[in-house]
């Protein structure tokens, strides 16, 4: 459901760059969580098969050029990307 929302947002806003999707990995645990409610990313994720790569960053981004809207992990501080918020 979240991935569909992200993808519709990309299409509606003609986003050309990769996009932050609001999941992060805590520096103290090997768990991915959603920024909004600190809930675990559980059950479904769309990380590319070889991702997340340890040490590559603790934020998530959607590859907008990927027809399957796959995710990668990126450096939060050095990779300035557009983002989407959901109410």
TrEMBL record:
Signal peptide (UniProt feature, chain positions): none
Family annotation (Gene3D superfamilies): Mannose-Binding Protein A, subunit A (3.10.100.10)
InterPro entries documented for this protein: C-type_lectin-like, C-type_lectin-like/link_sf, CTDL_fold, Snaclec
Alphabetical keyword list: Disulfide bond
Domain C-type lectin per the UniProt entry, residue ranges: 1-80
Protein known as: C-type lectin domain-containing protein
Species of origin: Pristionchus fissidentatus
